[in-house]
TrEMBL record:
Listed Pfam families: Profilin
Protein name, as recorded: Profilin
Length: 134
């Protein structure tokens, strides 16, 4: 995939280096780029998370076999965490649209001292700044 090859160097720069996992995928389930070993059924479930927020709150998010509780569903953002404030990991799933109109998703996980108040705006800014590379 030419797009993935062009995108890959960006994943080794700030802010991506602050995230534990980062990957981008299309609504079809096609992986664009990233560092994550998501199973196809996990990607399918992540995409389906936007269909019903009550179910998403109840079910949470699952990536690489790790469960995360969801505590916020706001428009194109779904986020939460696992563990506690000292030994936990946050997660954010962000839905966006490529210039071509294709719906895409970005998923990141992050560990303390990185908090959602920093990680999520960084993700949104990263996606917007690199929209032409998707």
């Amino acid at each position: 995939m030419a797009a993935a090859a062009a995108f890959e160097p960006l994943l080794h720069q700030y802010p991506c280096t602050e995230w534990t996992r980062v990957f981008f995928f299309e609504e079809s389930g096609q992986i664009i780029a990233g560092h994550c070993s998501a199973k196809p059924e996990e990607v399918r479930d992540l995409i389906a998370s936007y269909q019903d927020n009550d179910t998403t709150f109840a079910r949470g998010l699952l990536i690489e076999g790790i469960h995360y509780d969801v505590h916020r569903f706001h428009g194109d953002l779904i986020y939460g965490r696992r563990g506690d404030a000292n030994q936990g990991e946050g997660i954010c799933l962000y839905r966006f649209q490529k210039p071509s109109g294709t719906k895409c998703f970005a998923l990141i996980t992050y560990q303390f001292p990185i908090l959602s108040a920093k990680a999520i705006p960084d993700l949104q800014a990263f996606v917007q700044a690199n929209m032409d590379k998707f």
